[in-house]
Amino acid sequence: MRRFLLKVVITDYNKMEFEEEKRVFESVGAKLEIAQCRTEDEVIEASLGATGLINSEIPITRKIIESLPELKVIAKYSIGVDNIDVEAATENNVFVANVPDYCQEEVSNHALALIMTLTRKIVSLNQSVKQGKWSFHEGVPLHRFSTQTVGLISYGSIARNLSKKLTAIGFKVIAYDPYYQSANQETNVELVSLEELMGRSDVISIHSPLIKETYHLVNKEVLELAKPGAIIINTGRGSVINEADLINALKTGEISGAGLDVLEQEPMDVSNPLLSMENVILTPHIAFYTEESIQELKRKTALNIVDVLQGGKPRYLVNNLIKI
């Protein structure tokens, strides 16, 4: 019987199989253990002696990190790592890794689908036809894509992928990202302030990670700057938008519609007013998903751990100031 010297724990998961991860870890002499933890104490108990953790949604807190002295790496099944205490990990010489490139095609396509559906009023027109109203007047007014501007909040890899698709079908694209410096030179996308983006954009598409600086970035004050009749799209993180403020802006007509794949509370409460708004399209945090993207995510997450087990750093390192 093979003796495993290294232990890797999956802390939580959502309807997944793990054959691919098991093969990856067995090839380097590591044993994969699968848990479905709901509390800090359950994570600690399941992970004692572990060198690596693979995490989905449960918070990985300072208490957990400091309770696992053999821990060297935490890898997230995701792009965002907002549920991991990265500061505590860094202070304890624990690598944090994500997979920032696994679903660029999927999320940009999903955002594009929401943009096109709302700007062409596909859902409302479908409903009007089913109600016996056969008239193009039900869609008035519509405008050419070439007359409209899409403003991207954050200009990371997914937003840049989306930008190419938008410009190919005629939209003008501008972007707000205080951390990005070279949009003009690379893609002819104009970088503007958040205030200018809100005032110029017919469609505002959010792609921000959730960090302290972006929590409720799009709030009442920012929404009041929006161009009349603007549409909001969010395939980034739910809490980048103050949801109560968005609901109010939709009710007053300041914002004419929204396409949301992410929300502040997931799953949604059945009393959420967004559920009854005809000018809102909701999808269940699915923008990341295709069968191909999931397989890529699983493989790359496992390889982040393997990199550390073999004495290196994760290929997708988040806390890059770590010193070991």
Name of the top-level CATH class of the largest domain: Alpha Beta
Radius of gyration: 22 Å
The third-level CATH topology of the largest domain is: Rossmann fold
Structural class category: alpha/beta
Strand order in space, largest sheet: 8-7-6-9-10-11-12
Strand content: 15-25%
User: Into how many domains do the coordinates divide?
Assistant: 2
| Number of β-strand runs | 12
Helix percent reads: 25-40%
Keywords: NAD, Oxidoreductase
InterPro entries: CtBP (IPR043322), D-iso_2-hydroxyacid_DH_PdxB (IPR050418), D-isomer_2_OHA_DH_cat_dom (IPR006139), D-isomer_DH_CS (IPR029753), D-isomer_DH_NAD-bd (IPR006140), NAD(P)-bd_dom_sf (IPR036291)
GO molecular function, one term: transcription corepressor activity
Domain D-isomer specific 2-hydroxyacid dehydrogenase catalytic: 19-319
Can you put this structure into words, describing what you see?
This protein is of the alpha/beta class and 324 residues long. It folds into two domains: 7-101 and 291-310, NAD(P)-binding Rossmann-like Domain (Rossmann fold, 3-Layer(aba) Sandwich), CATH 3.40.50.720; 103-282, 3-Layer(aba) Sandwich (Rossmann fold). Helix content is 34%, strand content 16%. The protein contains twelve helices and twelve strands. The chain has helices spanning 19-26, 40-47, 62-66, 86-91, 104-119, 122-130, 157-168, 183-187, 194-200, 220-223, 243-252, 291-309; strands at 6-10, 30-34, 52-55, 73-76, 95-97, 149-153, 172-176, 190-191, 203-206, 230-234, 255-260, 280-282. A seven-stranded parallel sheet has the order 8-7-6-9-10-11-12, with helices on both faces. Strand 9 (203-206), helix 10 and strand 10 (230-234) form a beta-alpha-beta unit. The chain is elongated. The two termini are 34 Å apart.
